Fold this sequence. Notes:
alpha+beta; Beta-Lactamase; five-stranded antiparallel β-sheet; 41% helix; 22 strands; 547 residues
Amino acid sequence: MKQRYENSIHPFITMMDRISDIVLILEIMPGPEFIYEFVNEQGKKILGLDDTILGKQFDDIYDKDRADYIRDKYIEVMNTKAHTHFELTGVDGWIGETTLNPILNEANEVTHVLSITRDVTERKALEENLAKTSAELGLVWDHASDAIFFMNDDGSIYRVNRAFEEMLGYEEKEVKGVLIPPFFTAHNQQKHEAFLSKLFSGQAFENMERQRLCKDGSVIEVLASYRPVQFNQRSYAIVMYKDITHLKEVERQSREREERFKSLFDANPDIIWSINKYGQVEDVNASVTDILGFTKEEILQMNRHLLANNTDSQALKYEDAVKRTLEGESVEYTADVFHKSGKKVELKVKTLPIRVNGDTIGIYEVGQDVTLRNKAQRALKRMAFSDSLTGLPNRRYITEKIDEAISAAKENRTQFALLYIDMDHFKEINDSLGHDAGDDLLKLFANRIRNEMDADQLVARIGGDEFLVLLPEIADEEDAINKGGEVLTSLRKPYRISGQQLDITSSMGISIYPIHGKNKRELIKQADEALYSAKDNGKNMFRLFEK
């Protein structure tokens, strides 16, 4: 019978004789019975068979229980027309892993069964040793938080732990024996083979950052370590994955925040100083050059902070701001510093505590250049509180000062006076000489009043040719009367307007706080009434208000 096979399928027989697995072919006979038709050289060697097995059945070779077990497997293949697997062990401990494959004729009937048995004795022994080792390290293996798996020397996965399955979502049976694991990303076979060559040549690889694809499609970041190991004279690798996805995300967020802050720090139009808890400047942005003219290097080499190099009051303000900020408070204050060229720069400063883990380790000081803004505000204030023609304060300004004078007089129990002054016959002069001449006269008139005032005395134009003077802290009525007389004497001197000499007189009314009134409305009204009394009595004089 073997001769018949050798003549018809000689190439097949030659190939089967050369492989390391046991190959048997059995013909299916009625019954059914299974007759050995072919055994390769490896089968003869391992099983101790020869050509006498050909033509025999299972019962001729094995005991009843073993023969029935094997027959059932063959009947399963015959009925299902599908391959099946099972294991057989020998009395000497030999273990074979058998695969039965149906051979069908043209009528789709199973006529023969091809049996291929692989000697897995060594592998099973290794598995037993590994199982024993795994049992000894069971707590580490089963309860480790890191993914751990064993890799065969061909790169396929042999065993995985529970953390591996939880981390990547793959069960062991889904990846076991797979040459290119499905969790690899951007796989490059050439690089992979070069890596395996180095690994199984004894080189370990520690803490490599890699990306791995989970079963659900998500990508995680892992810290991968590979170490070659030897079991029963075979090479394996133990691989550990530490999930660092969250850590990498935190790092990315931290780096992004740092880059954002650096952009904000570097590109901010305001000066930003970074101060340590000892008050020393550790960093400053480029705006310091634009605003103060100093380079960053010059600032860092200074022994004292620029904000502290001011007047005593400002230095105290700075020290107080630093102290309060280190205690966790944000402080705002203003400071005058000097540009490298020597000009004064006005800064609006805000301090911010730098906190790490709840502790204040330093300060950020943000200095905004408000020089131009303050200048504009002062100009607007001057416009709001001054007369555009004479440059004197206006009604709004002097009425606020009267309120302040009342408060001071109440507190100190003192007196003050108001002088209400009006130019006599100004309308006729304005009409005859023109408005320009009238404006020039008002300016000269205002200057004469101002020149008669002491530093603490205030004169304001409150409308037309009317002026109001505040004399704070007079001793008595006589003081006010004397000052009024001096002013009127000065105003009587001739004026030179448009090439003409003009002799001008004025009238004045005087009121005293608190004699003639307790508030500004009353005091101004009483001074005005005294003024009209002077005009009604011939002008060119002053009158003290009389109740």
